[in-house]
# Entry
Amino acid sequence: MKEQQEKYKVLLVDDEPIILRSLKVAIPWDELGLSIVGEAKNGEAALQQIQQTAPHIIISDIRMPVIDGITLMKEVLPRSAKLIFIFISGYGEFEYAREALRLGAFDYLLKPIDHDELVEMLKRARERLDRQKENEQLMLSVQTLSLLARERMLAEFTLGNPRPLQHLKWLENSELEGEYFMAVVRLDDYAALTAKWSAEEKHLWLFAVRNILEEWSLENGALSIFPFYNGEWILLFPASLNDGKRALGEQLIAGIKRYSKLNCSVGISRSTSGIDQLSTVYPLASQALYQRFYSGQAGVFLEEETAAAGNREVQYPKELELSLIESIRTLNLERMLTLFDEMSLFIEAQSLPQPLAERLMIEMSVVLYRQFEHLNTHNDWSIEGLLSKLNGLGTLPDMMNVLKTTFRDWLEQSHKTAAREDGRSIIEKVKRYIESNYHKDLSIEEVSEVADLSISHFCTLFKQISGYTFLEFVTHCRMENAKYILRSSNVKVYQVAPLVGYQDPRYFTQVFKKATGKTPTEYREEHVKQA
# Structure
């Protein structure tokens, strides 16, 4: 069934009642998709009607008492430039009509009114309103796409992937060429919160926090804000605010607490410059947040202070950390336990005093706990519970035993969760969802929710099993369906684009030619000849 046409509102203005009555009954307003929302006897009364009814089209006599039609238009158009004026004039008022057109009127017609001529005029007016609406929707889509693409570009650079630079030159600006610093805002006890939230509640809470951060950022000079991991946002500030870092962080914590009742902590990096340094300062700000677990309460943690903490420089076992992360990501229990033994040997070989050994194990525990969060297995685990067990233990073997026991239990539970629905069936379910919704504006966040996986875990699993990236598969589905439509119907090319998820026909043509080597028209002509 054809979608019901939106009715545009029309205001009639004339000092002759007989003309108003004839306009109301002689024009097929419903068929034209128009609705009369008011009538006025002069321009002064029309001004009041315009404020009350907000019409799209005004049909007005050009000569009226009090305020004439041209004066009315001069008053209204500066505030409502898209308003369409159609004037009615007598034969002796041609100069007035020409002046009205010069000042922005859509058209005019002479008395006595030719109703068929007016109908055609109204059809053209409606077409203009439809185009204006389409352009507004397209502009909104472009603005939204630009914002999302820019956020994704910044996130990719933060992950250490510079490839977006090749494809998103049009999004770049110079704001990160000057010095800036990064603040990582992370909700406290996020795993515990998500365990009690439904999927809808989680979406609403994260949306609310993002809105709070965006509004606060606009008022406090942030260069940019974008979500990173679940429950975590990145804010970038100019280095000119460097002296007020702690105050900025405290304001962020207070604002989120005030408006959402949620607790968060903030880690802040040193200053740097250049978009390619995002991946360098993110670990610094993130590591500063480890101090959250030393302090036992929410707060602002500066990377400079974290780096200066401790009585001795410790060589952090980064390779060991990466190997442990990989063992958790692949749910390899035996490998994980072996690596914990290697960590114990490392600490012994360094002859670290107990405070430094505890610090290293706490930092490692936090990193590994975050990896379990990325697996998104929805178990009600608490890093605070683990750290409280470690606190006060007197020997390295006792501490390592707690670590191995706790992480073994978590890994085994994760393995059971993963076994309920193996990766291939998850990706098949996601592929079916994409194949049913490819014509919509699909986001990777939405599809990750369908998979019940974190974004990073979903991207890795989808590529491993399907051989496509998320975007590649969406484009593949769109192109296959576009080819089918072109082969099997006479639908015009520009009409095919929105059917397969593209609002801009020109962009659709570019993507289609890149995928097939032919324009949509060339592809259709070739298959028509073959048939």
